[in-house]
């Protein structure tokens, strides 16, 4: 297939993806929200509840991050750091890990992260939201919550992983004919 033919084919596929995204938005608007508890998290300043994480916003993004032991979760968080101001202008945003607040602070400082972080250590939050496996391991993802009066509801969530909609790295690598190949994220590159 020559370049022009391939480009036309890829443009058609991208149009199909755009149409599918519109269908997903329509389902998202019709979803029945899931009531959730007002979980307690730990920060360097002490305990904070899920409802407090909203600040003055109605919507809240919570990133379920596996913590300092996961290079992929670190890459996703590096990407969120770049768009944090844009996201925070519309909704509250926080990254939740099983690490202690002191470990989070040191790791975030080394990465230059600017967004707020909370520790769900000792809480059932990640498990209740579906981001802890049966073997006890953590899973990455994102949950979106809304505050509706005195009630907190989860209105959507998605797992994070290679090729998802939340990390541009894999999509850019998809434009290289060989794709990702044997590449994997690292904490630092030589």
TrEMBL record:
Record keywords: Coiled coil
Pfam families, per the entry: DUF899
Source species, domain of life: Bacteria
Parts forming coiled coils: 3-30
Alphabetical list of InterPro entries matching this protein: DUF899_thioredox, Thioredoxin-like_sf
Keyword Cell wall biogenesis/degradation in record: no
Name the record gives this protein: DUF899 domain-containing protein
Species of origin: Phenylobacterium ferrooxidans
């Amino acid at each position: 297939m020559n370049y022009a033919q391939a480009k036309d084919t890829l443009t058609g596929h991208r149009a199909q993806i755009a149409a599918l995204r519109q269908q997903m938005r329509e389902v998202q608007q019709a979803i029945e929200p899931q009531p959730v508890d007002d979980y307690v998290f730990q920060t360097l300043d002490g305990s904070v509840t899920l409802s407090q994480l909203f600040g003055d916003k109605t919507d809240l993004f919570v990133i379920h991050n596996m913590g300092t032991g996961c290079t992929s979760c670190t890459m996703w968080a590096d990407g969120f750091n770049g768009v944090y101001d844009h996201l925070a202008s519309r909704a509250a945003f926080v990254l939740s890990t099983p690490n202690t607040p002191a470990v989070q602070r040191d790791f975030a400082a080394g990465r230059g992260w600017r967004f707020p972080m909370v520790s769900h250590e000792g809480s059932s939050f990640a498990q209740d939201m579906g981001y802890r496996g049966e073997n006890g391991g953590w899973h990455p993802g994102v949950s979106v919550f809304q505050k509706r009066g005195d009630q907190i509801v989860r209105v959507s969530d998605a797992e994070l992983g290679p090729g998802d909609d939340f990390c541009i790295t894999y999509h850019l690598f998809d434009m290289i004919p060989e794709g990702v190949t044997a590449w994997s994220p690292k904490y630092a590159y030589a």
